[in-house]
C-alpha cells in the first residue's frame, strides 16, 4: 500500500491512552468515520482498546459502499 492509498476499513488498537485517542482523532480528520462501538479488554497490566473506522463511499475511493454489505 502506498502512502496515498487509504484502506476502506481500518481497526485501530492500542493501550487506552492519549496516543490512541490521537490516532482515532487523526483518522477522523483524514475523512474516516467511526464504525460500530469501541471495544476494550484488560491484558493483566493495561486496558487495550479497539475502534473500527471506515471511509464513506463519497470519499472517491471507487470502492463499494461498506454499509450495503
The helix-strand sequence is: EHEE
Distance between the first and last residues' Cα? 23 Å
Q: What structural class do helix, strand and pairing data support?
A: alpha+beta
Number of contiguous helices = 1
Shape: elongated
Low-confidence stretches: none
What is the gyration radius calculated from CA atoms?
13 Å
What does this structure look like?
- This protein is an alpha+beta fold and 69 residues long.
- Helices cover 17% and strands 36% of the residues.
- It has one helix at 18-29, and strands spanning 9-15, 33-42, 47-54.
- Strand 2 (33-42) and strand 3 form a beta hairpin.
- The mean pLDDT is 87.
- Residues 8-54 form the DUF1737 domain.
- It comes from Lysinibacter cavernae.
- This is DUF1737 domain-containing protein.
Helix and strand arrangement:
Layout: E1 9-15, H1 18-29, E2 33-42, E3 47-54
Antiparallel strand pairs: 1-3, 2-3
Overview in brief:
This protein has 69 residues and is an alpha+beta fold.
Keywords:
69 residues, alpha+beta, three-stranded antiparallel β-sheet, 1 helix, 3 strands, 17% helix, elongated, DUF1737 domain-containing protein
